[in-house]
Amino acid sequence: MKIGIIGSGNIGGNLGKHFAKAGHEVFFSSRNPEKLSGLVNEIGQRAHRGTVEEAATFGEVILLATPYGMLPEIHERIGNLEGTILIDTTNFYVQRDGAEIKKQMNAQNYRESEWVAHYFKGAAVSKAFNTIPAAQLRDKAFKKEDAQEIVPFGASNRQAKEITLQLISDIGFKPAFIGDLSKTQVMEPDQELYMGFPAEEEVNAYTI
Ligand SMILES: NC(=O)c1ccc[n+]([C@@H]2O[C@H](COP(=O)([O-])OP(=O)(O)OC[C@H]3O[C@@H](n4cnc5c(N)ncnc54)[C@H](OP(=O)(O)O)[C@@H]3O)[C@@H](O)[C@H]2O)c1
């Protein structure tokens, strides 16, 4: 798959490396793309770098891995992402992202991932990887099947579900589908499935 990465830091950088290792083509982006040359050179020919707009055009799949509060600005730059799959890895923190965006999503009774889908109306959105600390995502991928860590995810439709499940599997984790985006509250900060790989029995209570 061709994967455009928006936010190439702890989460986007490490997941992008994994996706390239699994055989996918990745396009890392930054507001200063020149600073990504080390990352891209380390990965080799399956990695590219450029602007946020270029990553959005490149990707059949877009991985969103920026601070949550940057949503309006990013949407302004790349539009609705028509026809793509958008994997949302973000979390909302009021100290970092500001109260206003939370106020807006609460007013419509949206989950954080639904608010992302509200911005990127043309995309089929999934929420994945946001529950796991970046260092664990970096270090625990590509395990053999019987030792794989569980990654919970939600998705807005069948295509987003299938592609996200495939990508989680491709990098050696075990996907656990918890339902559509309205069910993803349990993946939000300080909720039941937040911060670390869940045990099978923990995630079973939420999978469908
Ligand atoms: N770190 C974790 O353990 C962890 C775990 C799970 C989920 N998350 C969530 O994942 C997201 C990313 O976290 P992270 O730790 O990877 O952050 P990070 O290392 O700070 O990387 C975020 C990236 O976002 C880019 N960015 C910031 N503002 C932007 C804008 N307006 N337009 C385009 N790009 C912008 C920055 O790139 P440039 O400055 O180069 O443009 C930066 O490299 C956050 O929502 C976080 O809450 C983090």
TrEMBL record:
Domain of life: Bacteria
One matching Pfam family: F420_oxidored
UniProt keyword annotation of Metal-binding present: no
Annotated ranges, domain Pyrroline-5-carboxylate reductase catalytic N-terminal: 2-91
InterPro entries recorded: NAD(P)-bd_dom_sf, P5C_Rdtase_cat_N, STEAP_metalloreductase
Keywords in alphabetical order: Oxidoreductase
PANTHER family on file: DUDULIN-RELATED, REDUCTASE
Name this protein carries in UniProt: NADPH-dependent F420 reductase
Source organism of the structure: Aquimarina celericrescens
